[in-house]
Amino acid sequence: MVPTRYVTPTRTFDLKFTVAESVDIESGSLIYDARSDTLVFSFTGDDRPTVGISMSSMSGYWMARVDPETDEVVGMEIEHFAKAAVYERPELFAIVESVGVPQREVKRIRRRLQREVGAPPESNGAATKRGLVEQLLTGIGGSGGQRGLRGSLHPA
Question: Over 80: is that where the pLDDT of 137 sits?
């Protein structure tokens, strides 16, 4: 995975949610990059170029991945996944091991979540993927699209 890099200028998008609302959870791919601590969920499973749109309503770690040719939301990205996002959204712990977070880090996350919220959620990848899509749709306006959002190009 290529680290996210931002290129100016920005542009306005008329987001479409056809792919996001009809995503086959099992066919989408979850990829974790330990070096950048980033989780990428591609709804389509392909490796197309995308535009990242920061979801400020979702703590700034979350980005919708948008096809710049069609304005279709085709995935999502969570930056600071193991260092911050999983503590803010403990339900994400259910996929920590399955996406390849190093075992030492998994143990540290589990201990902290046990202290802060009780037992961490059990592993249920499909339910967690569905939850991620629902959170993304809620965070960026859901069905029908949202106008006027700005994003910056970054590689897939």
Answer: no
Digit-coded pLDDT (tens) for 39-76: 988 888 777 888 888 765 556 778 888 888 888 888 88
Tokens 């749709």 map to which residue? 137
The pTM assigned to this predicted structure is 0.72
For the chain, how many structural domains are there in total? 1
Strands (E), the chain: 7-14, 29-33, 38-42, 50-54, 62-66, 73-79, 147-154
Percentage of residues in the chain with pLDDT exceeding 70?
Answer: 62
Does residue 156 belong to any structural domain of this protein? no
Domain-embedded: residue 39:
yes
Q: C-alpha 3: how far from its chain's center?
A: 14
- 120: domain range? 11-150
